[in-house]
Each structure stands twice: as C-alpha cells, then as structure tokens.
Write a structure and sequence with these properties.
- The protein is of the alpha/beta class.
- It folds into 2 domains: 255 residues, Rossmann fold (3-Layer(aba) Sandwich), CATH 3.40.50.10540; 86 residues, formyl-coa transferase, domain 3 (2-Layer Sandwich), CATH 3.30.1540.10.
- Helices cover 36% and strands 12% of the residues.
- The chain is built from 16 helices and 11 strands.
- It has a 6-stranded parallel beta sheet, sandwiched between helices. It has a 3-stranded antiparallel beta sheet with strand order 7-8-9, covered by helices on one side.
- Strand 7 and strand 8 form a beta hairpin.
- Helix 1 packs across helix 7.
- The longest helix has 24 residues.
- The two termini are 22 Å apart.
Length: 406
C-alpha cells in the first residue's frame, strides 16, 4: 500500500478496505477510495452483478461498459473470489487480517456462518473496523426483513412527506436511501478509525438503512413529537418554510420568502408590473399568511407573475437583492454550469473515453479527493493482490481459477 507520509498522500492513504458490499454500500466504498483508501472490491468470479446495470457505454466491452459500475467504483482494485467455498473463505480471512476496514452488506449473520463475522476476524485483527450495512440493522424484530431502496425510503419516513397533499406518497428519483446509508456508514467508519488512533482497537459499525433515512426527515419527526400530528405532503413548497418552486417562462424557479424583506420585495416587484392583485393590502403585510388560509390565493397570483419571467431574470434580481432565489436545474444545465467546471467538480480523467465524472462537494487545502484510477476490470488485480501481496504462487492462483474459487 502507498506510504501515508509520501508526497501527494491523501487523507486515507495507507488505509486498506475490503469491500464486500452490494448496492447498499458500494457508494461508501467509493467515498473511502476517492480520498485515498486502498479499496479492494471483491467480486464473484465472472463479475459483480452491478456490472449489468445500465445505462451502458456504446462500443465498450460487455461487463466493462456499465456507467453505474464506472461511477461507483473509481479508485478501487478488483479481485474475484467465491466465498461460498472453503478455500475462498480462507483467502478472504487472510486478506482481512491485512485490512483496516471490512465493508459488507450481506444479511445479518450470514458472514458469521462462513467464519467471516466481526467476532471471527477481530481475533486475528484487533484493530479491524467492520462495517455492516443492512436494511434494518443487526438487531430488532425487523433484522431479517428484506428491503430495496424503495422500501428504505418508505419505511424511513421520507416517502410519506414527498409529493402532493391529494396524491399518494412519492419516491425521489435515484437511489436516495442507498446513498444516504452509504454516507452514514462512511461517517461511522471515519469515527471508528479516529477512535482507533488513540485506543488501537477496532470496532463494529452497525448501519441501518431505515435509521439512516429517518435522520434525513428534518422537521417531520420533531414536529410530531411536539404536536402529535403527521406532516403533510407540500408539493412544490418546502414544508413549514416560506420556500416554493414556481413555473416560469422556461422551466421552474425557487423563491424563498423567509424574511419580511424578501416577501415585501417580491410583492413590490409584482406590483410594479401590475400583477400583485391585492397583495399590497395591509392584511398581507404579515408573511405568515403565506401558509395560512390565504395560501391558495397568493400562490395563484405569484404563479401568474412568474410565468411572465425566465429563471435567469428571477434568479438574478433575487440574488442582486440578497435573497436566496435560484433556478431549478435540468441535467444538461448542471453539466453546462461554468461554476462546476471552474471548481473542478466535473472532470474527464485520462482514459475515460470522453466520459465526464462528477467530483466531491468539498475542497481541501491539502490533497483531498481525486480520481487516481478508473473503475477496475473484472479481477484486474488478482495477480497483484493474491500473488504479490498474499504470497500465492502463479500455479496456485491458476489452480484456484480452474476450481472456480477465483
């Protein structure tokens, strides 16, 4: 592994991670790898099922052309290993003895049946940080329940407050529950590694997708604790706040009126253009009526006005007057933002076949996040890890390949 004190070292240079995770934890592995950890992705012989998730790069080799795989596995090394075999579990146990972190998302207790649970591995590696990501955690009545990203989003409480008041709950696009779980696991692993610096002891990190999602519901749980009432779906408005998204000439724009000045500026602008209706009347001086009985009337007037302006017009005027107003960006607009390119959020790494990669939402004054390597090919590092690092001979590796272990 790279020397953590070497020039160009990143925050986690020198930390080795064995990544056994599936969809639930693959992003956590990427977060660790992108800040310098040596993340070894363990694939089943023939390739991880995630390689078959589209969209795909046209013209690329099958199982190497998944954009999903390429995004979530940057900076990782790949080995193939069948841990259903006794030889496979023995090799993984040896590999884990050299690791700082094991990351896995199997069903609770499964790896323990293979002699690969935390209780098994900490005996030979007391400093090991072992992170398990599951739908509902390792304990409790739901521990053995199965769940997808959709179920996690729903049972975590977020889906109920997403959508419109008169429609069923909706799911946000993408794998938000999986991403949130990986984020929380990343934080837990970093805390455990920090704790190990002073104690030399590893620990078990138990991450529940349901709990991870529940932590993102903001005011929802707090409001229920105080009022005993469930939050309602707010559609284009942010629940409990003076923030709403409006249709305009060329899409949608977000207008925040969380201060008296913002509300006064908005209705004054509408009035100058003869579109304020009765909003300049004294009864509307209190901005709290925005979410009261007059809400529908106010919303009708505001939308009639926003439809006469573009996203840029409303955004630029709001920002010039110190209000957090902004456009609702589409995918092509995000890719075209000079801001992203100027800060290096987007990049086209060497060998990326012209593909654009997104980066980290933070900058560090020292060496932080970067793409050092593209996602690995199937078993690309088998020789390097099994032979050079674990000491297997070439003939032993070939025999394992022939037997379906690697």
């Amino acid at each position: 592994m790279p020397d953590p004190s070497s020039e160009g070292a990143q925050p986690l240079t020198g930390i080795r991670v064995i990544d056994l995770s599936g969809d639930l934890g693959v992003y956590c592995g990427k977060l660790l790898a992108d800040v310098g950890a040596d993340v070894i992705k363990v694939e089943v012989p023939g390739g991880d099922p995630m390689r078959r998730i589209g969209p795909f790069v046209s013209g690329a080799e099958p199982l190497e052309n998944s954009l999903y795989w390429r995004h979530y596995n940057t900076n990782k090394r790949s080995i193939t290993l069948n841990i259903e075999t006794s030889q496979g579990t023995s090799i993984l146990r040896r590999l884990a003895s050299t690791a700082d972190v094991v990351l896995e998302s199997f069903a609770p207790g499964y790896l323990a049946t293979k002699g690969l649970g935390y209780g098994d591995l900490e005996i030979v590696n007391p400093g090991l940080v072992y992170a398990s990501l599951t739908p509902f955690g390792q304990t409790g009545p739901y521990r053995d329940y199965k769940a997808s990203d959709l179920v996690g989003f729903a049972m975590g409480g977020y889906m109920y407050v997403t959508g419109w008041p008169d429609t069923p709950p909706n799911k946000l696009w993408g794998l938000q529950a999986y991403q949130t779980t990986s984020n929380r696991a990343f934080i837990g692993i970093l805390i455990a590694l920090y704790h190990r610096q002073s104690t030399e002891q590893g620990q078990y990190v138990d991450v529940s997708m349901q709990e991870a999602v529940a932590t993102t519901t903001e005011h929802v749980n707090t409001a229920y604790n105080y009022t005993g009432e469930n939050a309602v779906r707010c559609g284009f408005r942010h629940g409990g706040q003076f923030i709403a998204t409006w249709r305009c000439k060329d899409g949608y724009v977000s207008i925040t009126t969380n201060t008296a000045k913002a509300w006064d500026d908005l209705r004054a602008w509408m009035d100058r253009e003869g579109m304020a209706g009765d909003l300049m009347d004294e009864q509307y001086n209190d901005r709290f009526i925005l979410r009261g009985d007059s809400g529908a009337h106010i919303e009708k007037l505001i939308e009639a006005w926003t439809l006469t302006h573009t996203k840029a017009e409303i955004t630029e005027w709001g920002q010039a007057n110190h209000h957090p107003w902004g456009p609702v960006s589409t995918a092509d607009e995000l890719l075209g933002f000079e801001q992203h390119w100027e800060r290096g959020f987007y990049s086209t790494p060497a060998g990326a076949e012209g593909l654009v990669y997104s980066g980290a939402p933070f900058k560090m004054s020292e060496n932080g996040w970067r793409i050092n390597k593209l996602a690995p090919q199937i078993g690309q590092h088998n020789n390097q890890i099994f032979c050079d690092e674990l000491g297997l001979s070439g003939s032993e590796l070939q025999a394992l390949i022939a037997e379906g272990v690697v």
